[in-house]
Backbone:
């Protein structure tokens, strides 16, 4: 079992639907991440939250809207998605303590498999 | 410029044998960390092993070891005594000091044959 919990595990939605992906960690990590992963490709970074503030948005379309209500929780709100948005969405967290973060691995959840009809 | 290079799209190994998965990296930051992740077909990304740029010794975690050659900028993963459950995609990744980003290679798909 991973220490980063993602729900739901699978999601099928139409292009006009609104849904949310949820991610939770209780490791005291202060950085949380959303990644998108297509089949047979590495994960692509979408958003980074550091101390509950959005620090990186990798030019993600506005139909994806992240939210970090507290240090343990990260949401990704989805609206008017396109078929090409079908992918595995991974959440991760890391400690993010001190200036040098190079020794801090990211811990991933099991992901949400999203299919857009 | 690609910072992490994994040149082996696919690798095959017999059960109980050792296998080496290659990874080279490029950075000018003196402080960096190198990570290996395993991703089975079910999707979860599992952290396996870490090597810091200042570490004098190669990292080991159970059957996993990292062959770190700093001058060559390589960080190869060695899996000893392969098991059928080791069949998965393996990603090498790097994090530079102070960076929030983890940069991934393209991955190597490992198949363990009985």
Residues:
């Amino acid at each position: 079992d991973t220490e980063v919990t993602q729900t739901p595990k699978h999601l099928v939605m139409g292009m006009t639907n609104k849904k949310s992906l949820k991610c939770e960690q209780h490791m005291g990590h202060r950085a949380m991440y959303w990644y998108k992963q297509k089949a047979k490709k590495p994960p692509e970074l979408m958003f980074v939250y550091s101390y509950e503030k959005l620090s990186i948005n990798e030019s993600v379309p506005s139909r994806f809207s992240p939210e970090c209500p507290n240090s343990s929780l990260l949401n990704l709100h989805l609206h008017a998605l396109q078929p090409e948005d079908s992918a595995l969405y991974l959440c991760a967290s890391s400690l993010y303590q001190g200036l040098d973060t190079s020794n801090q691995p990211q811990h991933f959840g099991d992901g949400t498999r999203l299919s857009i009809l | 410029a690609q910072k992490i290079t994994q040149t082996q799209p696919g690798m095959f190994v017999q059960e109980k044998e050792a296998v080496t998965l290659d990874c080279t990296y490029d950075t000018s930051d003196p402080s960096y960390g190198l990570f290996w992740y395993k991703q089975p077909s079910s999707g979860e990304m599992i952290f396996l092993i870490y090597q810091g740029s200042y570490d004098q010794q190669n990292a080991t975690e159970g059957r996993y070891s990292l062959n770190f050659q700093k001058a060559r900028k390589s960080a190869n993963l060695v899996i000893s005594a392969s098991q059928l459950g080791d069949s998965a995609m393996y990603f090498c990744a790097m994090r530079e000091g102070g960076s929030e980003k983890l940069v991934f290679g393209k991955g190597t798909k490992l198949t363990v044959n009985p």
User: Anything to note?
Assistant: The radius of gyration of chain A is 14 Å.
